UniProtKB/TrEMBL annotation:
<feature type="domain" description="Peptidase S9 prolyl oligopeptidase catalytic">
    <location>
        <begin position="385"/>
        <end position="587"/>
    </location>
</feature>
<dbReference type="InterPro" id="IPR001375">
    <property type="entry name" value="Peptidase_S9_cat"/>
</dbReference>
<dbReference type="Pfam" id="PF00326">
    <property type="entry name" value="Peptidase_S9"/>
</dbReference>
<dbReference type="InterPro" id="IPR029058">
    <property type="entry name" value="AB_hydrolase_fold"/>
</dbReference>
<protein>
    <submittedName>
        <fullName>S9 family peptidase</fullName>
    </submittedName>
</protein>
<keyword id="KW-0378">Hydrolase</keyword>
Length: 605
């Protein structure tokens, strides 16, 4: 990675299969995610898109001549456009007769034939565009589904759905004829990952969850499903093919960090690829055989690395590629610890960051990760740096439901959705208070998306534990959010709760923050986004009105964004707003010597 460029969006560049010197990637263009081309021979980059909301989805045909990018609104509804690699400023509609919809996958065959998945409330429709530009609809799948891949010959497509259902993986011809189905179940999920490169029979790679672990599997029309039981992993994995179609690159999330493995299916061998300790956010083998990955650790922002030492080019125009000034000019030195705390479901992992210049119990902010099937990583998070600089301890708990610790931990919602996770948060808090690490009366919660949901649920279910809540794009009313959500979000909710709100209403009510709004005592900051289709803003606005009726101090921040905001300035503005809210309600507005007040007084760098 060059000195002046950061990977603003942690995903690898897409490299053309038959022209490895050409690539496209998501880069930081003036503090906003946009699509850029990359000529690897010349070492130059060129900006392709320039949209107010930013752009994060792009593809490149196998010859490297045509760029695809998705032109969507804040809610994710849009259309694909194409442009020439050498003339990226001239784009045209790729599917001119197809109405706007949500992205549900794109894949290309060797000859440039492109399969496109587009979804709406009725399900997913698969379209095919041939090399001469003809577009036709091939099949429709009701409910939640997405296109995984197209085989190199352009004859078979694989469609994924809820990995725990009978429709987990479906293989169809590009004429829409069903060829095979591979079923998953609640304790044996199945994910399709992609077809092997090359000219032989189509060979599909999958990952199977089995007996608490994970293993690769392959499928062909001739042999059906073949499990590679000799190659088991104890925690979650994803994988991709080497160009030889024989070996796999497996990325494993394990205990807040990552490992890369090279797996030879024919030779039945497995070896760890040498990478630095930390987290790998994306990894792939490029057509020239180089193993590339996006790496980070707790003190290093995400960066592109590879076995051969690849570097991104300087930003077009030679300007430094930064995301805006940090609210705190000089980071405060701090210590980091990884702990395991006894809990109701077993030892609870947590990452703790402590300011080095303070002794004794400290105020603490629990950063609650989203998901649920995600985890707090050994990865750079500027929010941790900022909060530690205020004098706070920062605690990130990998509660039950988190990935990276095996299927049993990941699938444990035994006390109820959300309630299981609150028990783990409370156990870690109690341990740190008893150990004299954090102050009993000064612990706050801060979460985004599902983490924001847990924040609101905790404020109502455990009002005696938490003095402040910051909920960014949360779920405040699970039933109302379900009714307004996309099919993908509804499928996740049905998996978590074991049914819809009509089928199991008591489960939704028991796990919904709005059920406990009368018990909230702590000040709450709520941030909503106008185009959020995963955590719709209307139920959150209603929750805020209920807080107002009960005279609970609160603030609502409204942003023009989707569920994810890819504008650095918007993030900075939100951060400053939250810090001011903390200054008023967490430290005390009159105490100008408090950590938050001191941090706010520092000049921005």
């Amino acid at each position: 990675m060059s000195r002046g460029h950061r990977l603003f969006y942690p995903a690898l560049p897409v490299v053309a299969e038959h022209a490895p010197h050409r690539a496209v990637y998501v880069g930081d263009a003036g503090g906003r995610c946009e699509i850029l081309t990359w000529d690897r021979l010349a070492g130059t980059a060129r900006q392709v898109t320039d949209r107010a909301a930013g752009t994060i989805r792009a593809a490149l045909d196998p010859t490297g001549s045509t760029i695809w990018w998705f032109d969507d609104d804040l809610g994710g509804v849009g259309t694909w456009r194409t442009c020439d690699f050498d003339q990226p400023d001239r784009s045209v509609a790729a599917l001119p007769s197809v109405p706007p919809a949500r992205h549900a996958g794109i894949a290309m065959a060797t000859d440039g034939t492109t399969a496109i998945g587009l979804s709406d409330d009725g399900g997913m429709t698969l379209f095919l565009r041939t090399g001469d530009g003809r577009v036709s609809e091939r099949t429709h799948v009701t409910g939640y589904a997405y296109l995984v891949d197209l085989d190199p010959a352009g004859r078979l497509a694989v469609i994924g759905a809820d990995a725990a259902t009978d429709a987990a993986v479906t293989v169809v011809t590009t004429d829409g004829v069903r060829v095979a189905g591979i079923a998953g179940c609640a304790d044996g999920r199945v994910w399709a990952l992609g077809f092997a490169p090359g000219s032989g029979p189509a060979r599909l790679l999958l990952v199977i969850e089995d007996e608490g672990g994970y293993l690769p599997a392959t499928w062909t029309e001739e042999e059906g499903l073949v499990r590679h039981d000799w190659c088991r992993f104890d925690t979650e994995v994803t994988a991709g093919w080497f160009p030889d179609g024989r070996r796999l690159l497996v990325r494993q999330d394990r205990h807040a960090r990552s490992l890369l493995h090279e797996v030879d299916l024919a030779g039945r061998t497995r070896a760890v690829v040498d990478t630095p300790t930390g987290s790998i956010l994306d990894a792939a083998v490029w057509p020239d055989g180089d193993v590339a990955y996006v790496w980070t650790d707790s003190v290093t922002p995400p960066q592109l690395r590879s076995v051969r030492g690849v570097q991104l080019p300087e930003h077009p125009g030679g300007q430094p590629d930064v995301g805006g000034p940090d609210p705190v000019a000089t980071p405060v030195e701090h210590r980091r610890e990884e702990i395991r705390v006894p809990g109701p479901g077993g030892p609870i992992p947590a990452l703790v960051a402590l300011p080095a210049d303070r002794q004794g119990p400290r105020p603490a902010v629990f950063l609650v990760h989203g998901g649920p099937f995600q985890h707090a990583r050994d990865a750079y998070d500027p929010l941790v740096e900022i909060l530690v600089s205020t004098g706070c301890a920062v605690v990130r708990v990998n509660y039950r439901g988190s990935s990276g610790y095996g299927a049993t931990w990941r699938n444990d919602f035994s006390a109820g959705v959300g309630l299981t996770q609150l028990a783990d948060l409370a156990a870690v808090r109690a341990h740190l208070v008893a150990a004299g690490v954090v102050e009993d009366r000064r612990t706050a919660l801060w979460g985004t998306s599902w983490g924001g949901y847990l924040t609101l649920l905790a404020l109502g279910r455990q009002p005696e534990l938490w003095r402040l809540g910051i909920a960014i794009s949360p779920v405040a009313d699970y039933v109302a959010a379900f009714e307004a959500a996309t099919p993908a979000v509804r499928a996740l909710d049905v998996l978590l709760f074991g049914g819809t709100p009509d089928e199991v209403p008591q489960r939704y009510a028991r796990s919904s923050p709005i059920t406990y709004v009368d018990q909230v005592r702590a000040p709450v900051l709520l941030a909503v986004s106008t185009g959020d289709v995963r955590c719709p803003p209307a139920p959150v606005e209603h929750y805020a009105r209920l807080l107002a009726e009960r005279r609970i101090p609160h603030q609502v921040v409204r942003r023009r964004a989707g569920h994810e905001d890819f504008d650095a300035q918007s993030h900075l503005a939100l951060m400053q707003t939250v810090l001011l809210f903390m200054q008023r309600h967490f430290d005390g507005v009159r105490d100008e010597g408090t950590p938050v007040a001191l941090a706010m007084a520092r000049p921005a760098g």
